[in-house]
């Protein structure tokens, strides 16, 4: 498989599959079907120090962007082409960090901290140039198709930022009574 195709698969995992998983609200679904005792345990775990730290927007963002940048700039992507274990570990790291990233951006799990207002849009927008750094690095290293595939494959992040900003604007219009006056 070409590196460009491999990059598209990574992008599909982190920019399409992960947000779709978050949007189906798996944590909420588990809470709905759990016994009262299990629900209390899960809710307690969601309020734990570790969960509060991991779901701090700066931490979740840094883990997501950092894993993308570190993997591509360190040359681990070269290792993943020849070592299935490295590739598997990369996929697990990408999946976990992207689920965390998207939960903070658009999720609905009962977490102690939640981005509000324009926060989700800004959070997503700020991830884009950082991830593009990895794509630019691939292009500089002689893999222009892989870099272009990464830029294109991460475009759902920009779309999610635009939708988030639009939703915020619509909510502001509704709250101020301006909806439908234009």
Secondary-structure element series: HHHHHHHHHH
Q: Supply the helix-strand structural class.
A: mainly alpha
What is the end-to-end distance? 52 Å
Shape: globular
**Overall pLDDT score:** 90
Q: What proportion of the residues is helical, as a percent range?
A: over 70%
Number of domains: 1
Strand content: under 5%
Q: How many whole angstroms does the radius of gyration measure?
A: 18 Å
Number of helical segments with 4 or more residues: 10
Major beta-sheet overview: none
Overview of the molecule:
The longest helix has 23 residues, at 84-106. The protein has one domain. By secondary structure, the protein is mainly α. The protein is built from ten helices and no strands. It has helices at residues 3-23, 26-33, 36-46, 49-54, 57-73, 76-82, 84-106, 119-140, 144-153, 155-176. It is globular and about 50 Å long.
Describe the protein's topology.
Blueprint: H1 3-23, H2 26-33, H3 36-46, H4 49-54, H5 57-73, H6 76-82, H7 84-106, H8 119-140, H9 144-153, H10 155-176
Helix pairs in contact: 1-7, 1-9, 5-7, 5-8, 6-7, 8-9, 8-10
């Amino acid at each position: 498989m070409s590196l460009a195709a491999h990059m598209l698969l990574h992008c599909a995992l982190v920019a399409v599959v992960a947000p779709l998983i978050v949007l189906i609200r798996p944590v909420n679904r588990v809470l709905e079907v759990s016994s009262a005792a299990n629900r209390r345990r899960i809710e307690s775990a969601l309020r734990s120090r570790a969960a509060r730290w991991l779901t701090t927007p700066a931490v979740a963002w840094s883990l997501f962007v950092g894993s993308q940048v570190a993997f591509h700039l360190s040359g681990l992507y070269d290792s993943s082409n020849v070592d299935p274990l490295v590739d598997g570990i990369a996929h697990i790291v990408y999946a976990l960090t992207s689920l965390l990233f998207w939960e903070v951006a658009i999720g609905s799990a009962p977490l102690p901290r939640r981005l509000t207002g324009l926060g989700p849009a800004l959070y997503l927008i700020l991830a884009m140039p950082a991830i593009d750094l990895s794509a630019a690095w691939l292009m500089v290293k002689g893999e222009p198709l892989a870099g272009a595939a990464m830029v294109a494959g991460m475009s759902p992040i920009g779309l999610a930022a635009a939708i988030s900003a639009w939703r915020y604007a619509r909510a502001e219009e509704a709250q101020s009574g301006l909806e439908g006056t234009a």
